[in-house]
């Protein structure tokens, strides 16, 4: 059993991805069964937004978290549901679909929400800035995370 701070609504059985570059992350809609939080994100966004294109990147390895964590994500969602909506309204739809994960185990979520027309004119995923280290030098981060989840 994993420590409480590594659990979402179910245990996370994941292999560390510290040595894998982004090119090796799954960039299509098929869920990875070894990553339950990533799988939940894919499933919920697919069901709620019926995207034409969906990318879910686990960026936890870029932050000061234990190996194998599923706590920091970047998503790209291209959906006709976004037509006529402001960027804020699009983000609200994504946040609402992922309400459970955001309240339990996902610490950070970067969202790119595009219409199919926007995606057709600029089919790129923005890169996340490097982690500034926040808690990298704090050797008590594991205890703090645990205390925050209890």
Mean pLDDT: 75
Low-confidence stretches at least 5 residues in length (pLDDT < 50)? 1-7, 9-32
Radius of gyration: 16 Å
Which of globular, elongated, flat, extended, rod-shaped describes the shape? Answer: globular
- Which class of secondary structure composition applies to the elements? alpha+beta
Order of helices and strands: HEEHHEHH
- Write down the CATH topology of the domain at 42-123: GMP Synthetase, Chain A, domain 3
The number of helical runs is 5
Give the strand tally.
3
Amount of helix:
25-40%
Q: What spatial order of strands do you see in the largest sheet?
A: 1-2-3
- CATH architecture title of the domain at 42-123: 2-Layer Sandwich
How far is the N terminus from the C terminus? Answer: 15 Å
Descriptive account of the structure:
- With 150 residues, the chain is α+β, with helices and mostly antiparallel strands.
- The chain has a domain of 82 residues: BolA-like (GMP Synthetase, Chain A, domain 3), CATH 3.30.300.
- The chain has five helices and three strands.
- It has a three-stranded mixed β-sheet with strand order 1-2-3.
- The longest helix is centred in the N-terminal third of the chain and has 14 residues.
- The two termini are 15 Å apart.
Tell me briefly what this model is.
The protein is α+β, with helices and mostly antiparallel strands.
How would the blueprint of this fold be written?
Elements: H1 36-49, E1 53-58, E2 72-78, H2 87-97, H3 99-104, E3 108-114, H4 116-121, H5 141-149
